[in-house]
Design goal:
single chain; 168 residues; mainly alpha; 7 helices
């Protein structure tokens, strides 16, 4: 069974990637948040299965952030999650590029609890760019692929012409 664990963890990562891409393509904020919640839970399992405690704990905090942001919008939650991200960084970051992910988590905290619509998505573009920095630094091809496609989907949803109502 233990020989199958890494294979299962990798498969879980591909499922998480697909769910995350679906979420990034959504125009409805609730679907964006729900999809990212599920993707974060799956990614936590993926990273935990591969032995990354930092990655797993970061994704579990992301899942909590996405879950709570569906129900409440208050700056105090943003402060709390930003503080947790900073504490994770202080405790677990081992290289400078990991601080980009920490900064992305702090930014994400404020975006999810204080922004909606296009402003939320533009902010998530910035978060993905910060996360891409670590993927490039680590030469993580799956991370580079995930972040690049997610950026493309977010930008496509932001730059796609929207139908204008016809005035009579």
């Amino acid at each position: 069974m233990s020989d199958l664990a890494p294979l299962f963890a990798q498969a879980l990562g591909f499922v998480a990637m697909a769910v995350g891409w679906w979420a990034a393509a959504q125009r409805c904020d609730q679907r964006l948040l729900r999809g990212n919640l599920l993707s974060a839970v799956l990614t936590a399992g993926h990273l935990g299965g591969l032995g990354s405690s930092l990655g797993m704990s970061n994704q579990l905090v992301n899942a909590a952030r996405f879950g709570l942001a569906q129900r409440v919008r208050h700056r105090r939650w943003a402060h709390l999650f930003a503080g947790v991200a900073l504490l994770q960084g202080l405790a677990l970051a081992q290289r400078p590029a990991e601080w980009c992910v920490v900064l992305g988590s702090v930014l994400s905290s404020y975006l999810l609890f204080c922004c909606r619509g296009d402003l939320l998505r533009w902010g998530l573009v910035g978060v993905n760019l910060l996360n891409l920095t670590l993927s490039v630094t680590l030469l993580s091809w799956s991370g580079i692929l995930y972040q690049s496609v997610t950026l493309t989907l977010l930008l496509r949803s932001l730059l796609k012409p929207r139908p204008t109502p016809i005035s009579i």
